[in-house]
Design goal:
The complex is a heterodimer of chains A (151) and B (351). Chain A has four helices and five strands; from the N terminus they run αβαββαββα. Chain A has 151 residues and is an alpha+beta fold. Chain A has a single domain, classed as 2-Layer Sandwich (TATA-Binding Protein), CATH 3.30.310. The relative contact order of chain A is 0.19. In chain B, helix 10 packs across helix 11. The radius of gyration of chain B is 26 Å and the shape is elongated. The chains are: A alpha+beta (151), B alpha+beta (351). Chains A and B meet through helix 1, strand 1, strand 2, strand 3 and helix 3 of A and helix 1, helix 2, helix 3, strand 3 and helix 13 of B.
């Protein structure tokens, strides 16, 4: 009987654990307007210990081509030592550094989009996985903060 | 022995109560907000995705249709397949969607509709192709329209899509054609003068796509390499100059040149052996954003030049690889082209 106990406990814990959605593309909608959402996003990024390195306009000329919005930016962020270490040790990641989140207006709402940092990992560098897991965790929290608008 | 018996029975009792989690444990509203609201709107009014809250949609579709759509998605048509949600989570989301339209959801009998697909094909061309496209491949734009203008308030879904055919029963398709969906461009074709037999013929034509090779498919993450990397035979300065020439030669404009760590470290500490060149072509940018605004995440275009271990290397992301993130057939072509442009710029500059 004793032999089965750990097994049962295992099954038990597996069945209670909540499968998290490991999506490749992280997306969120907030009903904050664009300037408010932008402030909140940058605050949330900083609260997770990252530096916002640049906010890049993407919407040059958008209004001329039929878009109702000209509110489209990419927010770049990172940690100096992490970005240096990753770009030195894993040159394949260079085009994807620093990290980024796109933010744009849709009507009165604002949407944010990012690629899941886990998609940068593969089997060649198993040691990279925990690093990206941590960045993923931070980004999932940032996205969740953006969804919750009651403050 | 007795003790372990007791522990065992306590564990079993606990397991019985706590697993599987009772359906009410899953918060459908929160799961919807997390997974669906970005495209279908917080209240299901649509946006990127089609509206889910309209009464005529709600009355026309069964819970099974909704569950299967969530599971399988619509390959190549933006709507993702949610493979990581549990059965109870999917059911909780469906309950949340149902809260927008009171009443008992319809259940269709599984009886197949029998009709003549060849006659249906002719009727389809005449009555449906204008919106649902040639071969039922769906309207242009996939509903991923965000705030840009579109031909119709809602883009007609792809009907030859394996995800749709898996979710929709014959009877559901038939009912949609008989009744239409008020509040959308999809009208009742009974009122348009088609007979019930005509509608049966069209249903069997649509069903016939199930047996043909699918034209829409999901791209897999590993289908192409993550990064484009080339070694340059020149020094840092010469490589950057050559890249600038090649970029302009491909009709792009240089937007900005900066170090990789710009904004992360003090100006004096910036590493000038890692340089980013940003560039852009407004025509291309606007075309790409019109097809799928989410792709702005990878814009403006960028090439990075890095000196490592005495060699000068040139790196770019690979749009062809990234296309799998978006599940958008229309975007795939643009991404594949963009990969070619990156490679041709870098090859020219490092020749």
């Amino acid at each position: 009987m004793k032999k089965f106990l750990p097994f049962l406990v295992l099954i038990f814990s597996l069945s209670v654990s909540n499968p998290s959605q490991a999506d490749n593309l992280l997306m969120a909608r907030t009903n904050l307007n664009f300037p408010e959402a932008m402030l909140k996003l940058q605050d949330s990024i900083r609260n997770h210990g990252y530096t916002v390195s640049r906010v890049q306009r993407v919407d040059i000329g958008l209004t001329h081509s039929g878009y109702v919005t000209d509110k489209y930016r990419v927010v770049f962020f990172g940690k100096a030592d992490l970005v240096t270490r990753l770009s030195n040790d894993y040159p394949k990641l260079i085009p994807y550094l620093p990290f980024k989140i796109a933010i744009f207006a849709e009507g009165d709402d604002t949407l944010i989009i990012a690629a899941n940092p886990l998609q940068l990992t593969d089997k060649t560098y198993p040691e990279l996985k925990p690093v990206m897991k941590k960045v993923e965790k931070d980004m999932l929290e940032i996205f969740q903060t953006m969804r919750n608008n009651e403050e | 022995m007795r003790l372990s018996h007791q522990i065992l029975s306590i564990t079993l009792i606990l397991a019985f109560f706590i697993s599987p989690p009772a359906p009410a444990d899953e918060n459908g509203a929160a799961l919807y907000a997390e997974n669906c609201a970005v495209c279908h709107g917080n209240q299901g009014k649509g946006g990127v995705g089609v509206p889910l809250a309209l009464p005529d949609f709600q009355y026309a579709v069964s819970d099974q249709f909704l569950e299967r759509t969530i599971r399988r998605g619509r390959p190549g048509r933006v709507m993702p397949a949610f493979k990581n949600l549990s059965e109870t989570q999917v059911r909780a989301i469906v309950r949340h969607i149902r809260s927008w339209a009171p009443g008992k959801p319809i259940r269709y009998p599984t009886i197949k509709v029998s009709g003549d697909p060849l006659k249906g094909r002719i009727l389809y061309k005449k009555n449906c192709a204008a919106c649902h496209g040639k071969n039922a491949k769906g309207g242009k734009g996939t509903g991923v329209t965000f705030s840009r203008p579109r031909d119709l308030p809602i883009i007609a879904p792809a009907l030859n899509n394996q995800g749709f055919l898996y979710a929709a029963s014959d009877q559901m398709i038939k009912a949609t054609l008989m009744n239409g969906r008020e509040g959308t461009p999809m009208v009742s074709f009974l009122k348009q003068g088609l007979r019930e037999q005509d509608i049966n013929d069209i249903v069997s034509f649509i069903r016939s796509f199930e047996k043909r090779a699918p034209i829409h498919a999901y791209r897999e993450p590993g289908h192409d390499k993550l990064t484009v990397a080339y070694e340059s035979p020149y020094g840092m300065k010469e490589t950057i100059a050559a890249l600038k020439r090649a970029i302009i030669g491909e009709n792009f404009r240089i937007i900005r040149i900066q170090t990789l760590d710009s904004g992360l470290v003090k100006k004096a500490q910036e590493d000038h052996n890692k340089i980013i060149i940003y560039f852009c072509n407004f025509q291309l940018l606007n075309t790409a954003l019109a097809v799928d605004p989410r792709v702005g995440l990878f814009l403006p275009c960028r090439i990075t030049v890095v000196k490592r271990h005495g060699k000068v290397m040139v790196y770019a992301l690979n749009p062809k690889h990234l296309s799998y993130l978006f599940n958008n057939d229309e975007l795939n072509k643009l991404c594949d082209n963009m990969s070619k442009v990156y490679i041709s710029i870098i090859e020219e500059a490092t020749l």
